[in-house]
Amino acid sequence: QLSCLVTMVTLRGIPKDLDSYPKDLLLFVSPSDYAATGSCRQYFTNIGRANLDVLRRESSQRKELLLEALACLKIPGTQVNEENAEILGRLVCDLGGEYIRSSGGNLLKQLSQCESFLPDQEEAIRSVISSGNTTFGPPVAWSAFTLNELGGLIPVFDHSILQKIPK
């Protein structure tokens, strides 16, 4: 339905007010088409707020979006800073374990919004959390507020992390 709607909306070219349309609609507009109305950074900021689950997790379209986002943001290796993590939004859910490890705690806030994780992502999240080298600190110093912030990641925590969290 969204793909069909994009066809109707863009029949006479890309509208100048494309940012005012639902973010999910932008999943079916290519970054090059969007470039006529804004920057690739703005496009991926909008995409990061969209419901990516509209696209199948392993779909070529979703993989291509991530690759184009990394290129747009000029992320050369596997380290993503906080600013770029904010822009990527839900796209971080598709980053592999090597990105999660290299980025330290920079991705945790966005990762906590993901519906599910692959095994290498789970392992990387546990590794980053266990290190204590995040803005949240080590699990022994966490509060209810911290757990609320990391809520979506709690199912990934193993016994060694859970036992360190104060009651």
From TrEMBL:
One of its GO terms (biological process) is cell-matrix adhesion. The keyword Signal applies. Belongs to the mesothelin family. It comes from the Eukaryota. Keywords: Cell adhesion, Glycoprotein, Membrane, Signal. One of its GO terms (cellular component) is membrane. InterPro entries: Mesothelin (IPR010335), Stereocilin-rel (IPR026664). It is found in: Membrane. The keyword Signal applies. This is MSLN protein. It comes from Balaeniceps rex (Shoebill).
